[in-house]
Amino acid sequence: MSTTESGLLPAWVGQYLRDHTVHIVVVALFILYPFAYDVLVGQFGLIAETLLLRPRTMLTVLWLGLFAMSFDFVSGYTGYLSFGHAAFFGIGAYFVVLGYNGQLPLLPAELPFMSLLVLGALVAVVAAVLIGLIAFRLSGVYFAMITLGVSEILFVASENFDFITPGGSDPADGITPGTPSDVETFNPELGVPFVDALQVELGAFGDTSILGIDMAPIFSETSPAIVVSYFAIGAVVLVSYLAMQRIIHSPFGRVMIAISENEERARAVGYNTFWFKMGAFAISAFFGAIAGGLLVGYQGFIDPQNSFFFLVTGFALVAAIIGGLKTLAGPLFGYLFLEWVEEFLAREGSGGGLQPFLEQNLPDGVLDATISGGLTVSKALDSFMTGHGEFYAGIIFVLFVLFVPIGLLGTLRLRLGTESVSKHVSRKIERRLSGDETSEE
Questions:
Q1: Pairwise CA distance, residues 330 & 68, whole Å
Q2: Considering the entire predicted model, what is its pTM?
Q3: Shortest CA distance to 230 belongs to which of 113, 56, 67, 40?
């Protein structure tokens, strides 16, 4: 068997590690983040809280990042903007709740969470096929409007259909798995089926141990249950990302890219672009629904506003533009950046965010100083920071559209002169190992 230069690993293992060095580093940083947060907040207190995202917020980044990546999978790589992509997010979320409550035909109540998660994603695939049969007969703004229209239909239905809440409550207020008075009956477990050691219960009051390691003694500034959910959901997001990336780098994915660049030429060389677009749409719907199901798994609640509403798709589009369309991983980093901006500029309370940091560290004389017309520095901080994170995120989005139109990851690729950061790093490592530092890529 051939080995690497060091003779310690088979050649193919060394090549794989070099090809995925960037992915390995990013995954390692995500794994280490809760530990680093706990240590830094314990050491530096408010300063660290001001600069770092809370692990609970990082959870939101994970499932919304997965949704944004599923949006980019079809919209970035085929060029067809799915403005109604929230439909699939909502289908995945509502299927978990309604299925658990025994409100869906042919399904017994209280099915395992993993079963509901996958079945909901498959239902989203069926919905994507039905929508695509109509929408892909058109292109451009007409395709976008049809998908948006379907999402709005589902949004209105979820707000008004009494079937969703047989107990008599208003569907617009949302629903929970189980009865609202006894939501603890919903114990969603995520992991490898039939292997107890590889399954954990999600939620802020779920398991505090993972892989047999109890997180409670390790974390003092962060809830260990949140950390366990972070790792479990992060594993699903990672597997989903790798699956989508593998598809993009397959012959199927190359046709997707050809469609986005010149669909007429792809059709001229013999590809049935209609079915390739349908396939991409169905795959993106599957992972979009997985993201919606993960939201319910952790929060144990869903409502129309945070599932079917068109702004759910809007946030995915913003994250994709900031992170970089047609990069797959870019939207995840786009969401990470947006959440950091909102927490840094808008969070209030006893810790975290720029405002409480300034209020605790600026002298009273500065805080009470009058700027103009009775407006003090303290009141200005309260007026211009508290609750305005989305306002500043909107300004940043406009600036990105004007000055960084290809996003963070797209700009990085452009500066490196490569189509893939991973391949660029891999080539650098190979040249260093071979001692050839001057060869051209």
A1: 9
A2: 0.91
A3: 56
